[in-house]
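Request: Give me one sample?
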Amino acid sequence: MGMLLIDAANVIGSRPGGWWRDRPAAARDLVQRVAQAVASKRLDEPVILVLEGQARAGWGEGPAKGLSVVHAHGSGDDTLVEIAAKAEDPVVAVTADRALRRRLEELGAEVLGPQWLLRRLDGP
């Protein structure tokens, strides 16, 4: 499949659940769930998850249990595009953001919606 690139803010925001009250906790939960999915082979490595804004306080930057967490220090969308542009392997990105989807597809990335990822995280 290549590299899996996750727009964490978009995935977290795709489900109501009070994430807006504690963005760091929501980010921490997503990182842990993605790590579990990688460990159980529901997701293939490499996986890169981009955190932005307040969510960055939920998990440190760097390798984390089968995935890499990247902190966007400016726009999360720009960080995702920069990572995709530098990738040597095919990129599969997860976002529902239409403008970001267009930018990533222009780079040759396949773009899937958050529900694709959430089904894998919720799986057996």
Notes: The two ends are 21 Å apart (CA to CA). The beta strands are 3-7, 47-51, 62-64, 67-71, 91-94, 110-112.
